[in-house]
Structure formats: structure tokens, C-alpha cells
Amino acid sequence: MRRFKQMAVTIFNELSGLRVTVVGLVLGFFLVLIGTLDQVNLGIYYTVKVYFKSWLVYWRGWPVFPGGLSIGLLLGVNLIFAHSKRFQWSMKKMGIWLIHSSLLVLLIGGAMSGFVTQESQMIIREGDTKWYSESMHDTELVVMQEQGDSVHVFQIDMADVRVSDSITMGPLIITIEERLANGILRLLDDPNRWQSAQGAGRYFSVEPRPVDRRPEARNHMAVWVRIHNQDGTDMGRFLLSSWLNHPQWVADSATISVRPTRYYYPYSVTLMTFTHRQHTGTSIPSYFSSDVVVTDESVRQPFHIYMNHPLRYRGTTYFQASFDDADTVSILQLVKNPVWWSPYFSCLVLGVGLVWHMIVMIRRLR
To answer: Which pick of 49, 277, 280, 330 has the fewest CB atoms within 10 Å?
Structure first.
């Protein structure tokens, strides 16, 4: 027991030391540097995912560097241990406490934001109404079963699915046979080429493509699945792809599809008018905006969304991101971050701490 206590004290002293602080800051510096340089190859989304939202950074399957979560945890533990060991509670030390507490809030808030922030797009045509948005990077497998006047929807994230997995979704048992992260569908000259295939698989082949990591790119996942009914009846082999716009009928009451992950809202958004103006004599946009109506239960509220002036509603922020199809389609960027307040709160606490410490130092000098 005594030996264990001595070991715990040694670890505590090491983790609370300035050496750990310096090591953490140096590791963080190199992580930011490497991630910034590799952004040319990976793009913003994958750079953040690989370097800053991970515990370890891998190269050719081997862990070679601590990720942003590991470095943040190290600095957070170091800050807490250093405070508990060196700093004494007093009104004169209040400023130091507040300054370091603000850094801890910033670290914790940044880590939480990486896990809970939800980003998506709402692509909406003039006159249309939508109550959901779609992910730009994630894909889901969906089975819809009609039962009378209602439709039951079964969803699973494709990130949780592996080749050879068998999944029970409503009335169907789905086995994943092949999977492509990005594939383009090509129309077959002979529809009977794949005799064992059903649905779209009889008319299309899949051409593998490398994953496009540009921020504006959309990759189309494609999978070959074998589907059985609950009683064991083989329904056939189906080709599913997010490139297809419509689900495929598997049985009289069930459809299946692969599509971008959807996020549903308890209200709807209707695009009334989209406006797009360009600089004179050029094709460079000078202004584009969306006039929308949000219908929440029986309440209809009009809003004007334009560049650098988003709509904030029920915890979700709507940015005017882009447009398409001869200026009749508006592309809204949606961001939902429950801990958006953490950097503002951290800066407020930091400011109060600096002012408090400055007052204490001035009084000491006087």
C-alpha cells in the first residue's frame, strides 16, 4: 500500500510539473503544423477528423503521433494538478484562478464541441418545404415499411457497418457483401448481365473512385447487399448507392436505400424567394439571400437569410452557403452546437481574471 501511494505521488508530481506543460504545448504546435500542411491532401473535414478529433494519428496503419484529444487531455490534467499542488486559495490569487479556469473551460468546451457539433446542409428549391437536413459526409442505410396509413423507418449509420455483417432492419435481414466508399454507377448495355441481381443492380455497374476530399465534394457510397425475409426467403442481391435518388422496392410493403444521413426537426422551412446578384460585368456573386418561412406548429415566421447574417432558431444556425440550378435552389449550411457558449464564457472569465490580477498588482505596487 505504501509503495502504491509513493507511486501515485510520483505520478502526480510529474503530471503537475512545468515539463509536462512544455511537452504538451510543443506536441500541440507540431500537431497544428502537420495538420495544416496535410490539409492540402485531406481537406478541412478529414484533417480535423484525423488530427484533431482523434486520440492518435495513424500513418500506414501505425500510430505515430498523439492526436488532439490526447494532447488536450494531457494539458487539462496538467493544469488541474498544478493548481491543486501549487496555488493557494486567497482573494489575491483569485485572478490567477480565474485565468487558468478559463483555459480549462476552453479545453473542455473545445473537446465537447468536437463530439456534439452537428453540421449538415438543407438544399431547398423555391416553393418547396423541408423539415430535415442532410449530412455532407455521412451515409445511412434505410428501410421503410408501410403498415396501413403509417410508415415505419429503420436507419443505421453506414460507419457502423462492415462487410459480411448481417443486420435485421424491420422485416428484412440484410447482409453486406461488398462496399465502396465512393463509386460511380454506369448503365449496362445488357440489363440481363447480372442474372442474380435485383432492382438497380440489373441495370447498373459500379466504377470505383477515390474518395474526393475537397470541402464541396460529395462522395457516393455503393454497397452490394443480400436480402432475406424474416422467414428466411432469399429476396435477391441488390445494389444500393447514394447516387440513386429513389429507394428500391424489396417487397410489397418495404423499400431499401442508401442516402446521406438525415437530421429531422420539429418544424419546417419553406423557401419563398432566392435572390442572387453579381458584380457588374463579372460572374462573381456580390449578394445572395433566401427569404424563408419557418412553420412551427401553427406559427409561421418569415426570415431573411443572407451572407454573414444567419438565422438562429431552436439551437440551430442557418447560414447562406451557396446556390444551384439557375438560381432556383438555395443551399443552407446548418450548424447545431449545444456548447457554442463555451469560448465566450471562457473569454469573459479570462477578462475578469486579468482585470482582477491587474488591480491586485497595482495595489501591491502602491
So the answer is: 280
Which of 327, 284, 321 is closest to 306 using CA atoms? 321
3-class secondary structure, 312: strand
pTM over 0.85: no
Q: Which are the contacts of 299, defined by CB distance < 8 A and separation ≥ 6?
A: none
Q: How many angstroms separate the Cα of 155 from the Cα of each of 135, 137, 265?
A: 14, 16, 16
pLDDT in tens, 84-126: 887 777 788 888 889 888 988 988 888 888 888 999 999 999 9
- Residue 200 sits at φ, ψ, to 5 deg, of -65, -20
Encode pLDDT of 117-155 as tens digits.
Answer: 999 999 999 999 999 999 988 999 999 998 878 889 999
- Non-local (6+) Cβ contacts of 94 within 8 A are 353, 356, 360
DSSP assignment of 85-138, as one string? HH----STTHHHHHHHHHHHHHHHHHHHHHHH-EEEEEEEETT-EEEEEEEEEE
**Distance between CA atoms of 131 and 133, rounded to whole angstroms?**
7
